């Protein structure tokens, strides 16, 4: 590439700024190592193998995104899609975890073929601006909810009812104090405010005695030998396998369209969308090889971008930190939730501000957008929220005599999403 690999001057950034943004991005998304591994283990994947599979998938995904697309987008196994991998593909559809990894590989191949074809531009241009904005806002609300839950300010009770947490709990108090400090640092535009928030939050957790304990368990690479390259194409021609491929492909494809587009726009580099989207496809395909559920352009990327990340150096920094943490796996759970939760809540709040750009006068445009915004956090699934919005958008346009304003591509997308729901409930 001209003017250096990452073109730092052209992007008005510096090595120090990129490294700092990558560090902040890592600390914001580091929880995925523990969470994704535990979810995969419930599918039968050996826990130690799932941990290393998550780390290597994240490292390689970030490396591809950083070098190929030169974009500050963090690529890690996606929340929601990992639950689909375990609870739908394996536990409901009764595939083996090896077959589920095979489904991931095939889905990634289909994704990649689409990403390297003209279909990418066609699909992106077919999505209305109101839908694009709604996806960003909905993800913002979702991040706020995740932050509130990680900080124990709200809890999911019976029947998934959200309730206030126990405010007499020292962990909750630690989150509140850290959140106030985080807001002050952010509003005063203190350099590295998110990193300072994490450091202060960890200190507060230590003082209040709520710092997670270090596990005494040792870590062995032996468990990973059963996971690497364990994907299986056995019974690939059966209905359950094909349905699984279709469902996963639908989810990762359209979830990444929304996430990737919002991230490149946030850095004022929309021209990077195509290469970033292609990097996503390759990463999903390799996820099955390394032993993980599919990757996404994670919503927590906004933390790195807000911290000043503008090039692939940010992403590569995060990727190598994932690799380094392999040597500290027994300590990975020592990072307190009160140190991360405020960062997620602030980022979510920033994303929600896009709501001022929505045109609420045309109900056929605003109602699908509102449903996306609401359903993403309420269903606890970015993919389901997006799908409902697409389907409703087409229905309302048809009912108001505006069928010609909807592109053929959008009709196809909506029908595929509808088919996805039908198959999901039928199987």
Automatic annotation (TrEMBL):
Membrane topology recorded in Swiss-Prot or TrEMBL: Multi-pass membrane protein
Membrane-spanning ranges: 21-39, 45-64, 71-90, 96-119, 131-148, 168-187, 194-213, 233-254, 275-293, 313-332, 339-355, 367-396, 408-426
Name recorded for this polypeptide: NCS2 family permease
Keyword annotations: Membrane, Transmembrane, Transmembrane helix, Transport
Subcellular location: Membrane
Stored Pfam families: Xan_ur_permease
Primary site of residence: membrane
GO cellular component, one term: plasma membrane
Organism: Gracilibacillus thailandensis
Signal peptide segment: none
Chain coiled-coil ranges: none
Molecular function per GO: purine nucleobase transmembrane transporter activity
Similarity field: Belongs to the nucleobase:cation symporter-2 (NCS2) (TC 2.A.40) family. Azg-like subfamily.
């Amino acid at each position: 590439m001209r003017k250096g690999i990452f073109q730092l001057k052209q992007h008005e950034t510096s090595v120090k700024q990129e490294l700092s943004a990558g560090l902040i991005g890592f600390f914001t998304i580091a929880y995925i190592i523990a969470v994704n591994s535990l979810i995969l283990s419930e599918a039968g994947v050996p826990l130690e193998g799932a941990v290393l599979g998550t780390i290597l998938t994240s490292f390689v995904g970030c490396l591809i995104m950083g070098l190929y697309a030169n974009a500050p987008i963090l690529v890690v196994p996606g929340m929601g899609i990992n639950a689909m991998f375990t609870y739908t593909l394996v536990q409901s559809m009764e595939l083996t975890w090896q077959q589920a990894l095979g489904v991931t590989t095939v889905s990634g191949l289909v994704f990649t073929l689409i990403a390297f074809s003209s279909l990418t531009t066609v699909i992106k241009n077919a999505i209305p601006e109101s839908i694009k904005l709604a996806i960003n806002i909905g993800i913002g609300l979702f991040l706020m909810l995740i932050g509130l839950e990680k900080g124990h300010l709200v809890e999911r009770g019976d029947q998934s009812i959200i309730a206030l947490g126990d405010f007499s709990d020292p962990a909750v108090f630690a989150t509140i104090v850290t959140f106030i400090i985080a807001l002050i640092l952010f509003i005063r535009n203190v350099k590295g405010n998110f990193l300072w928030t994490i450091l202060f939050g960890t200190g507060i957790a230590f003082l209040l005695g709520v710092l997670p304990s270090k596990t005494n368990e040792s870590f062995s690479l032996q468990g990973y030998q059963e996971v690497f390259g364990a994907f299986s194409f056995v019974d690939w021609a059966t209905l359950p396998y094909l349905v699984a491929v279709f469902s996963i492909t639908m989810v990762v494809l359209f979830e990444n369209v929304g996430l990737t587009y919002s991230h490149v726009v946030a850095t004022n580099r929309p021209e990077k969308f195509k290469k970033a989207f292609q990097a996503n496809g390759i990463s999903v395909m390799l996820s099955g090889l390394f032993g993980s559920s599919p990757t996404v352009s994670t919503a927590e990327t906004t933390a790195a971008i807000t911290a000043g990340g503008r090039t692939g150096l940010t992403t590569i920094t995060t990727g190598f930190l994932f690799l380094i943490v392999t040597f500290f796996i027994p300590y990975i759970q020592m990072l307190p939730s009160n140190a991360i939760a405020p960062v997620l809540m602030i980022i979510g709040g920033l994303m929600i501000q896009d709501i001022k750009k929505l045109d609420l006068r045309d109900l056929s445009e605003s109602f699908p957008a509102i449903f996306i915004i609401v359903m993403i956090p309420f269903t606890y699934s970015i993919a389901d929220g997006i799908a409902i919005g697409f389907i409703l958008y087409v229905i309302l346009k048809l009912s108001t005599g505006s069928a010609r304003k909807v592109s053929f591509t959008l009709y196809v997308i909506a029908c595929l999403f509808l088919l996805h729901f039908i198959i999901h409930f039928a199987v």
